[in-house]
Amino acid sequence: MATTVRTAFVRNAPNTRLPLTSIAQFLSHINQERLSALNLIEAYHQHVQHAQAESNAYTSDLTVNIDAPQVQAMLDGLSQPRLMAVPFAVKDNFCVQENITSCASLMLQDFVPAYTATVVQRLLNAGALLVGKTNMDEFAMGSGSIDSWRGAVTNPWDTTRIAGGSSGGSAAAVASRSAIFALGSDTGGSVRNPASYCGLVGYKPSYGHVSRHGLIPLVNSTDVPAIFTHVVEDARTVYDVIAGPDAKDSTCLTTPPPPQRDSKLNKVKVGIPQELNVPEYQPYLGFWRSVAERLEEHGAEVVPVSLPHSEYANACYTVLCACDVASNMARYDGVEFGHRSTASDVSTNAMYAATRHEGFNEVVRGRILAGNFFLLKRSQQEYFLYAAKVRRLIVQDFTKVFDKEVDVLCMPVTFGVAPTLEEFKKLDNRTQQELQDLFTVAASLAGLPAISVPIAMEGHLPVGIQLVAPNRQDNFLLDVAQHVESLYKFHEKFSLGL
Questions:
Q1: What are the boundaries of each domain within the chain?
Q2: Distance between alpha carbon 6 and the CA centroid of its chain, in Å?
Q3: What sign results for the dihedral spanned by CA atoms 134, 139, 140, 145?
């Protein structure tokens, strides 16, 4: 029997048999209950509003835009696509035609794109219903979802704590069950981190497997559309819908992936990075060790491995991220689109300066300035080019380990449970990022598939574990993640109680 964790969030939840937690459960329910389109839309409209009121999960409620006759046709069996009427949410840095895409920033508070991101369109084509755009750190530059123009996102398990970032709104939306699944973007850990804090599966596919067209960029070489679900099987289902080549994104791979590795546990060799097994991490790594032991008990071979350059991943990412930010943010000048300041009419340059000062928060402005410094002619060799070389060494570490030693890596996601908003806000953004992304950023720099799987509770808060697989071994990774999920049965034991 599941243990119900009750909070103010769930005590005030709308009184309805919806929402549900998995795609299969949802499809079975609507087939059995013979719901009308209006009842279905109204149920999720209530839950979106509730998630917004309690966790500030959304920047906009799109349930009012859902085409009721189209939904009714699906429910009546006239059209039954793969994700028939399944409600989902999307981080507010994915473009949706004729709907504001703000990146949780004043700069884009009124920006309405003329096109829809490829991944969103593929989900809509599969019959899924977009119920809302979700809150986030401004332009995805954060690790707690507290640096939003629209206010901080809080954790549905305990609203005094962070949801994680930068995709915290999407995590809160799924954890609160106002959406069956949600899209986020994972650049250095921005889906895996909040997934761990909110008791969810957070899956980052291999770089190049999923189109970035319509995703407003942070770091072009590590941004990946990623997925929040309650169970691994749903992550696989959503991935199957959104993955694949896209002529609108030149970084999408068109060649088939290599043959999948054998995912039977007694054939899997699991690596434990020894660089993480140091005294200052010991208070936080008990769950990590328990997963390794349980995998070994069920037939997997667990061995120590070395990723000697992983300790430099955060510093490397900081430089490369700032450089891309300086380039990507240059388009926001108040001329073609976005916020435009009226504070200065002295000159065009003064208007640019005023617009960017008003439109960007301190975190974004700081990264732009840092990136411009790193890209100065006198600085490039010392910072940008050096960071690029370190990134290559990090990639080579992973390649060596996967080619010669193990099939998958088992690592922590974060240091533990979600910190309180109060303690998190005491740290500056750079320190927050260094602590929150410590275990996740290296896999992003290497473009590898990675997943966070919920395994246990510490007190009343969830904890996840991270698995990282070789490049393009996404289905193998999902298979191993399902093994871990079956060993712990998190969602059979723990529930928010909705």
A1: 3-262+408-495
A2: 25
A3: negative
Answer CATH for 3-262+408-495 from 3.40.50.720, 3.50.50.60, 3.90.1300.10, 3.40.50.880:
3.90.1300.10
Quote the DSSP letter at residue 153: -
* pTM for the model: 0.95
Alpha-carbon distance 295 to 485, whole Å? 11
The predicted structure's pLDDT at residue 35: 85
Q: Is the pLDDT of residue 18 over 80?
A: no
- Quote the tokens at residue 479: 């298979």
Is 484 within 8 Å of 411 (Cβ atoms)?
no
For residue 79, what pLDDT band results from cuts at 50, 70 and 90? Answer: confident
Instruction: Identify the band that residue 20 occupies on the pLDDT scale cut at 50, 70 and 90.
Output: confident
Strand, coil or helix: 61:
strand
Structure tokens at 236: 């696989």
For 205-250, the pLDDT digits (tens) are 999 999 999 999 999 999 999 999 999 999 999 999 999 999 999 9
pLDDT classification of 161: cutoffs 50, 70, 90: very high
Which helix (H) or strand (E) is 487 found in, with range? helix 474-488
Which amino acid is located at 69 in the chain?
P
Written as one string, the DSSP assignment of 219-264 is: -TTT-EEEEEESSHHHHHHHHHHHBS--TT-TTS--SPPPPPPP--
Instruction: Find the angle CA(326)-CA(328)-CA(334) to the nearest 5 degrees.
Output: 95
Q: Per residue, what are the HEC states of 184-209?
A: EEECCCCCHHHHHHHCCEEEECCCCC
Token pair belonging to 351? 């208007």
What per-residue confidence (pLDDT) applies to 384? Answer: 97
Phi-psi bin for 244: left (phi > 0), alpha (psi -120 to 50), beta?
left
| Continuous segment of H or E residues that includes residue 304 | strand 301-305
pLDDT value at 251 more than 80: yes
Picking from 47, 146, 125, the residue whose alpha carbon sits closest to that of residue 82 is 125
Mean pLDDT of the chain: 93
Q: What is the DSSP string of 422-450?
A: HHHTTS-HHHHHHHHTTTTHHHHHTT--E
- Residue 153's CB is within 10 A of a number of other CB atoms, namely 36
Q: Is 268 exposed, middle or buried (0-12, 13-18, 19+ CB in 10 A)?
A: buried
pLDDT one-digit tens code per residue, 437-461: 999 999 999 999 999 999 999 999 9
Does position 7 have pLDDT exceeding 80, yes or no?
no
Residues paired with 4 in a beta bridge: 495
Instruction: Return the active site residues.
Output: 91, 166, 190
